Each structure stands twice: as C-alpha cells, then as structure tokens.
C-alpha cells in the first residue's frame, strides 16, 4: 500500500471513529426503537435518522443490525447475578431473585421486544447468547458450584441443570403471567417454592 493510501485510510478511520458519548446516544436510539416496535422496527436507516448519524458510519462500526442491537443491549445491561456471593447457596439464590425482581419494567420490555426475533434470527440468537445470556448463566452456575463445594447440595442433584433455565425462563415469560408474576416478590417466591425444594434446601419460613 502506498504512503498516500495509508494516510487516507488513517484519515477515514479517524472520521468514522465514534466517541463514547455518541455511542451511548446511538445505543439509546436502538433501545427506544426496540421498545416502541420490537426488533423489526429497528433499522440502520431509522437509527441514523433519529441520531443524525450517517448510515455508512453505522455499517462500518457494527456491520449488521443484529450486531448493533446486541451491542446496545449489552451496553445497557447491568449484570443481574455476577458478583453475588452471600456465603450460602440459599442466600445467593435469594439475592439473585431479589436482584432480578428489581429489574422489571423497562428491562422486561426489551426482552419481550427481542424474544420473537431471537427465535427467527440465528445471527441475533448467537450474539445475544454470547454477550447477554451466557454471563448470567455462568454466574448462576458458579453459585451452584460453590454450593456443591461447601457440601450444601449433592453434585449429582438433577435439579442443578435446571436452575439457570428456570430463572431465565421465568424472567422471559413473566409478562404472559401477570396474574402470577405481577410484582417484585414473584421471583423470590418462585425460589422458595420451587428451586430450593428441588435442590433439597429447606425454604425460609413464612
């Protein structure tokens, strides 16, 4: 590559670089579009128009819509379960339920918005698994592994494999069962009534 061409490439890279503040603005527009109309309502053209950003800049930075949506979800995500360590498995699971219950509302809207798209778009599914779902599953699995190490549950307890899917499944469908999961106490109640007994841990008293 000639010196002139290399200089032109560096200049183009500088022009297309997005500042952290601008990136957050773009992500905010993506999330607003998701809440307003779901995954299909998000387009590169729509994000560009809403933020006065060149469409070419978006494609240079994220390549595809699924990458942009996943990046926006990941950036907005405050880890639910990472860092929870109360010293006991029951305490960890109760704390996880309280943390998840406190994140209802706008987070739930986003998950509902991408729920159907998750099933229909393999590229979005792969990206969300890697950046959003896998870290939360790993955090729950780590709680269970510590419980095994402390001797609180048996390593061969078959319920272990279903704890993370159970947690995330309830979060995913709570909007369909508003009569049963209508407030922040629903997930803690689910832990006491279902998860702890399945693991052989006595639930807390009334």
UniProtKB/TrEMBL annotation:
GO terms for molecular function: DNA-binding transcription factor activity; transcription cis-regulatory region binding. Residues 20-80 form the HTH tetR-type domain. Keywords: DNA-binding, Transcription, Transcription regulation. The keyword Transferase does not apply. Residues 43-62 bind DNA. This is TetR/AcrR family transcriptional regulator. It comes from the Bacteria. It comes from Streptomyces ficellus. Pfam families: TetR_C_11, TetR_N. PROSITE patterns: HTH_TETR_2 (PS50977).
